[in-house]
Specification:
The chain has five helices and two strands. It has 118 residues and is mostly helical. The protein has a two-stranded parallel ribbon. β1, α3 and β2 form a beta-alpha-beta unit. The radius of gyration is 17 Å and the shape is globular.
């Protein structure tokens, strides 16, 4: 078996599943994004949604993020929680892991932590 590695992080999928052809398949569904957008407010009524955007509007423009919250979801009031991860953009986990950890911690515990301590 070529996977998992003996050391380091072990992903749920194999290296073969991570190849660009398979990875891009999720983005080839032209109706996927519009279906999710259209049904997002329904999901928010059924399950708690905790939304954390990166504070840097790089890959996803700020007006698109605002549109999702204000129009697709019907406002922040329909979210279980909403936050912006400082010093992070679309790849928040890679660019600011402590910031993402802080956002998740705050949702799970209900405790707001200082920006430098977790």
């Amino acid at each position: 078996m070529e996977y998992p590695d003996k050391e380091g992080v072990t992903l749920k999928c194999t290296r073969k599943q991570e190849t660009p052809e398979r990875h891009q398949a999720a983005y080839l569904d032209r109706h996927g994004v519009s279906s999710i957008y259209k049904d997002l407010s329904t999901y928010a009524k059924r399950v708690p949604i905790h939304l954390a955007y990166g504070a840097i509007d790089d890959y996803v423009p700020g007006d698109v993020k605002e549109d999702v919250v204000n129009n697709a979801l019907g406002g922040v009031k329909n979210l279980a929680s909403f936050s912006r991860v400082a010093n992070a953009g679309h790849l928040a986990v890679q660019t600011n892991p402590p910031g993402v950890a802080r956002a998740v911690y705050e949702v799970l515990t209900g405790v707001r932590c200082a920006s430098g301590k977790l």
